[in-house]
Every structure is written in structure tokens, then in C-alpha cells.
DNA sequence: AAAGACTCCAACCGCGGCGTA
DNA sequence: GTACGCCGCGGTTGGAGTCTT
């Protein structure tokens, strides 16, 4: 019949992840690659449910995540995509591969919503003051969105039908993630070769913070970028944590210098996805082998489901999503073309972004 | 300086789709 | 065909940090 339960509800740790847990998770994924989340807690000895592990990886530890402020361009992208797709954050995030859906969702809820509300209110005030508003401006936002979504839906259906004749299967895309636009022909909008800050940098920061934190304090402090700097470093005993998983040797190695090297020098030859260059000095201090940012060399490996990276010497990444070239001859609406276009058309995007929503509505 | 209000975001929860036994 | 588990998604929450009074 069915499978064993995902995870026992009892004895599962909740709350913020400690740096130690992060290290264990990262090293495990480095070894085995992402996926098969159910096996992660049992194999690593982490007292976390598989869901929590997956979330931690996808939202925080995963390579390629950009942190910090959203750029104006990203902001505009999100606003427009939200207008198009609604609160389908995963779909929106697929157009901003450096950002997680959680990040985008948070940013929307905390910043953009308010921003737009203010703008909307301002517009309302203007509308009230000037009675001779155009007939178009009378269309409420809700109506406009409905119309937009209907149009998109119809366009997608037409595209899907057309593609089903021309392309036997589009399901092989490694990024075909069952998101809410499954029928959209996936010429993935993400950059085929985009340079951006290493998110492995996140892990570097994390590791640096962790190195600076004492194990005791680390359980108190959050492992986010907000983590306060600690003055001393005591290397925690990861081996102790991994004692519950004797079958996994890699984690036990981490207590030795060799183990550390193997931990920080991601260069697995099988299906591991990341390779990093870092060093740990005599005092156990973690030092990236470059001045400011740690260099993580992340190379494209074959079996990686989602992310292939090429590293540059300056520590930035090229993300090369190995997607099938689904160049189609099917006519697209202007806006969908724009959405499906890659980021090399930044200027065109900027122009489109500059348009008012009411203007983009005319494109349909 | 202290207390309360507010902001932000990592993490949790619950649901639905899909795959598997 | 059915039941069950896994995975991914969107909504929500908890609490640390920051701002205001």
C-alpha cells in the first residue's frame, strides 16, 4: 500500500535553523544533491521534518539566491507579473531566478502592496478631483485584471494547442516544476547566462558567522544576515550531531581539517551541484580564498534538477539553466513575448515597465 | 532610557496535485 | 481503482530588530 509516514510529528525540531544544522544540510545536499527530502532527516540526523529541510534549502541555502534590496527593475517586474499572474509567487519567482518565491511574497506583502495602495489612493484622489476621466480609467482594477487573465488564459490555450502539434513534449524541462502555468510553453524566461552575485555567498556568510559564533550562542542567534557578529569561534562538533547517522561518513569528517576541506570544497563528481573554494586557517577561522566574498565554484553538473552554475573568478555566478530550446514560431502577445524573453532585453523591459498598467492593458 | 508600536522575514501550516504501492 | 505519501505552493505567524513616543 502506501509509504511510511513523511515524518513523525513528535521529536521534530521547529523554529530557526542553527548554523550547525545548515552545515549538515548543505554538506548532505552537496553530497547527494537536492531532492528526496524524506531521506534527508534520517540520513543527516537532523531533527527536522523533510519539509523544513526543503524549505531551508530552497529559501536560504540554495546557490543562486540573491539577498538584499530589490532593484527598481526587479520591483517593476514583480508588480507587473503580479498583475498578470496574481499571487502565484512561484511562477513569478521563475522570472526572477535570483529570488525565492518566499522573498518575493514577503517583499510584495511588506513593500509593494503598501506602495501600490498609496499610488492607488493618490489616483483615486486625482480621479475624484478631475471629473472628466477617460472611459478607460473607469475600468476598475479588478475588471482589468479579470480581462487580462482571461486573455492570457486564452492565449496560453491557443499556444498550447499549437505546440501540441509541433512539439511532442515539453515536459522534459528540468525546471518544469508543476507550477501554476503548466501549459505555458516553457521557453524559460530566466537568463541563459546571467551574472549575478553568488548566493553561495549566503552560505559563505553563514559559515563565517557560524565560525564566529560559539555553538552555544549559535542556537540563540538566527543564521540570517542579521546575525550579530560574535567575537570568538569554537568549532562545533558536527560529528556529535551526525552520530545518529553512522552510515553517513562525510559529516563525521567535518571535525577534522580534511573533513573541513571536503566540506568546504564542494567538488563532488557524481550528481552534486556545487563546488566551492574556501579555506580554514589554523585557528579554525573560516576564510574564503578571496578578499571580500567567498568564491564558490559551482559547476554545471548533469543530474542537477534545477540549477547549473558556472563560477567566475570574481565570485559572481553565471547561472546556466539547462533548458531545452523551445523556440517557437507561435505568435505571442506582446506582453507574453516580453515575459518569455530573456533578460538581455533589459531596455525593452524597462520601457514596458515604464508603461502604466492601463497602457499595457491595451496591448491585448 | 524605557516602553510600546511597527517592520521585516524566516519558518510553519494546510492544501492540492501527482506519483506510487 | 483506491489509498496514501511526497512535494510544491500560497497564506499566515512568531519573534527579532528597528523606530517612535
UniProtKB/TrEMBL annotation:
The answer to keyword DNA-binding applying to this record is: yes
User: What compartments host this protein?
Assistant: Nucleus
Q: Where is this chain primarily localised?
A: nucleus
Please give an example of a GO cellular component term from this record. nucleus
Task: Show where the Myb-like domain sits.
Answer: 9-61, 62-112
One example of a Gene Ontology biological process annotation? response to auxin
- The segments labelled Disordered in the record are 119-145, 166-196, 213-254
Q: Name one GO molecular function term.
A: transcription cis-regulatory region binding
CDD domains of this UniProt entry? SANT
The Low complexity compositionally biased stretches are 128-141, 173-183, 213-226
Keywords recorded for this protein, A-Z: DNA-binding, Nucleus, Repeat
* Stretches assigned to the HTH myb-type domain: 9-65, 66-116
Q: Which PANTHER family match?
A: MYB FAMILY TRANSCRIPTION FACTOR, OS07G0484700 PROTEIN
- What this protein is called in its record is Myb-related protein 306-like
Q: Which organism was this protein described from? A: Nicotiana tabacum (Common tobacco)
Gene that produces this protein: LOC107818868
Amino acid at each position: 500500500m502506501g509509504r511510511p509516514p513523511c515524518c513523525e510529528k513528535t521529536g521534530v525540531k521547529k523554529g530557526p535553523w542553527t548554523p550547525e544544522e545548515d552545515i549538515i544540510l548543505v554538506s548532505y545536499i552537496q553530497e547527494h544533491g537536492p531532492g528526496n527530502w524524506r531521506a534527508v532527516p534520517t540520513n543527516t540526523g537532523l531533527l527536522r521534518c523533510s519539509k523544513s529541510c526543503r524549505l531551508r534549502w530552497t529559501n536560504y541555502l540554495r546557490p543562486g539566491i540573491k539577498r538584499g534590496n530589490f532593484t527598481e527593475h526587479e520591483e517593476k517586474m514583480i508588480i507587473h507579473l503580479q498583475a498578470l499572474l496574481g499571487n502565484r509567487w512561484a511562477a513569478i519567482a521563475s522570472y526572477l531566478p535570483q529570488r525565492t518565491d518566499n522573498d518575493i511574497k514577503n517583499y510584495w506583502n511588506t513593500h509593494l502592496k503598501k506602495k501600490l495602495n498609496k499610488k492607488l489612493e493618490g489616483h483615486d484622489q486625482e480621479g475624484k478631483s478631475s471629473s472628466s476621466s477617460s472611459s478607460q480609467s473607469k475600468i476598475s482594477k479588478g475588471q482589468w485584471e479579470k480581462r487580462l487573465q482571461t486573455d492570457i488564459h486564452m492565449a496560453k490555450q491557443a499556444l498550447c494547442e499549437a505546440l501540441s502539434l509541433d512539439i511532442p513534449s515539453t515536459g522534459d524541462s528540468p525546471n518544469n516544476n508543476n507550477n501554476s502555468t503548466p501549459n505555458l510553453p516553457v521557453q524559460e524566461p530566466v537568463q541563459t547566462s546571467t551574472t549575478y552575485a553568488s548566493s553561495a555567498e549566503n552560505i559563505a556568510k553563514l559559515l563565517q558567522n557560524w565560525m564566529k559564533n560559539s555553538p552555544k550562542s549559535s542556537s540563540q542567534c538566527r543564521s540570517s544576515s542579521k546575525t550579530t557578529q560574535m567575537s570568538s569561534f569554537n568549532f562545533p562538533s558536527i560529528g556529535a550531531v551526525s552520530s545518529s547517522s553512522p552510515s553517513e561518513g562525510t559529516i563525521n569528517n567535518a571535525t577534522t581539517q580534511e573533513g573541513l576541506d571536503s566540506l568546504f570544497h564542494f567538488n563532488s563528481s557524481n550528481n552534486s551541484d556545487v563546488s566551492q573554494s574556501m579555506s580554514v586557517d589554523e585557528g579554525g577561522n573560516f576564510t574564503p580564498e578571496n578578499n571580500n566574498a567567498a568564491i564558490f565554484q559551482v559547476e554545471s553538473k548533469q543530474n542537477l534538477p534545477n540549477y547549473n552554475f558556472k563560477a567566475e573568478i570574481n565570485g559572481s555566478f553565471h547561472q546556466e539553466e539547462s533548458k531545452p530550446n523551445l523556440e517557437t514560431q507561435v505568435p505571442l502577445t506582446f506582453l507574453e513575448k516580453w515575459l518569455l524573453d530573456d533578460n538581455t532585453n533589459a531596455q525593452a523591459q524597462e520601457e514596458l515597465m515604464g508603461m502604466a498598467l492601463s497602457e499595457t492593458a491595451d496591448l491585448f
